[in-house]
Write a structure and sequence with these properties.
There is one protein chain. The protein is built from 1 helix and 6 strands, in the order ββββαββ. It has a 5-stranded mixed β-barrel. The termini are far apart.
Length: 103
């Protein structure tokens, strides 16, 4: 079994897919050393991943390579969350939805 440990930035939006069996499934692209890796994460780990990781986050993943040359994530660690400097926040410090207008 081939394993890999990769550190890079999440280059795409984290897409959540629900299977017929009800198992959550996430797909994203990781950019590391000018290479793009297709990554998958499934099961209970997917819930924590969606909550913690956004596009632009720098993460380290420990993964297994499947027959389609995709990285199936076993463990992950968020190194740097994305920077929202210059974006609009509400009074509790959360980002405002794009449909709200301040002025």
């Amino acid at each position: 079994m081939n394993t890999a440990i990769v550190t890079g930035k999440v280059d795409s939006e984290v897409k959540v897919i629900n299977t017929k069996s009800g198992t959550p499934f996430c797909r994203f692209t990781l950019l590391a050393d000018d290479r793009k890796f297709n990554c998958l994460i499934a099961g209970k780990k997917a819930f924590g991943f969606v909550y913690e990781v956004k596009q632009g986050s720098e993460i380290t993943i420990e993964s297994v390579i499947n027959e389609r040359n995709q990285l199936v994530v076993q463990k992950f660690k968020v190194l740097n969350p994305p920077n929202y400097f210059g974006q609009v926040f509400d009074y509790k410090g959360r980002r405002m939805p794009h449909k709200k207008v301040l002025f």
